[in-house]
């Protein structure tokens, strides 16, 4: 597994600073949810900073490691990493300020609040900077090999998924306009120009995530797609570790095919939950069409994985040297391990 990792001191420092700040925010927000009773649309004002801190902390750490794998365009990659780190810090910082004030960050169209008027452009601009930096970085990674075949496939597939996860909310924000007035944690009416729900703009209620239980929610595909890279990298790492004991896994091509099968299945999952949200359907209330689509993805993934495993095991068995045969006392040939 050592080829998967690089010394932490070699990781991209601005992104590592960003990750540390984000995980620090997670701790602060966790305390806030326990001691601060204010709510926005039914959830603690500190839930959003907590979720954004965790998501950006995890992703910034992943990018900090990934940039050590670049063999071409390293200067551009490191510059993009710095841009991403700064934009993410500003974005989440603005979210945290608004949360502490007991009001909304994204979609807030309140023209009477000078702080909101100053922060909303930062939020909008920050999202675009993050998306553009992600797109360029994805291209930089796609034009080169960043490691062995399995690792390379995990990184490429994961970055493609993450890019999709960042673009999807932007698309919905500009195509699904739901102007309305809601109440903030201070009891003040706030004009909103958009919502995260589809069918029910302010839908919520799911434990922990607070995703909508009354309609579609574009945060669902955003979450699954954004963190696909961590899932695929974990699978690549586990396969590399298992290769020490499983002879048939020592072939890099076999591990790459298994990562490819996992990427295929995960992409199918993202496609299904995106389609489900698009139709205004809650993640926990799938209809027959959604269940059939999920079943098809599962069968395809299991089938491709099984084929790779069976083929690899057979190939490994054929490559194994045949044991020498010796004669038994009765004159019958027997394997050498029995003769001994």
| Number of self-contained structural domains | 2
Roughly how much helix do the residues carry, as a percent range?
55-70%
Intertermini distance: 37 Å
Oligomer: single chain
N to C succession of SSEs: HEEHHHHEEEEHHHHEEH
- Our count of helices gives 10
Ranges where pLDDT stays below 50 over 5 or more residues in a row are 322-340
Q: Report the principal-axis shape.
A: globular
Report the sheet with the most strands, covering strand number, pairing sense and barrel closure: 2 strands, antiparallel
> From the helix content, strand content and strand pairing, which structural class follows?
mainly alpha
Mean pLDDT: 88
| Sheet with most strands: strand arrangement | 1-2
Counting DSSP E segments of at least 2 residues, the number of strands comes to 8
Rg from alpha-carbon coordinates: 25 Å
Percentage of residues in strands: 5-15%
Keywords: Membrane, Transmembrane, Transmembrane helix
Region (Disordered): 320-340
Transmembrane segments: 50-67, 79-100, 120-143, 155-174, 224-244, 256-278, 290-310
Structure commentary:
With 340 residues, the protein is mainly α. It has ten helices and eight strands. Helix 1 (13-35) packs antiparallel against helix 2 (47-66), helix 5 runs antiparallel to helix 6 (219-226) and helix 5 (149-175) runs antiparallel to helix 7. The longest helix has 32 residues, at 288-319.
Key descriptive features of the protein:
340 residues, mainly alpha, 2 domains, two-stranded antiparallel sheet, two-stranded antiparallel ribbon, 10 helices, disordered C terminus
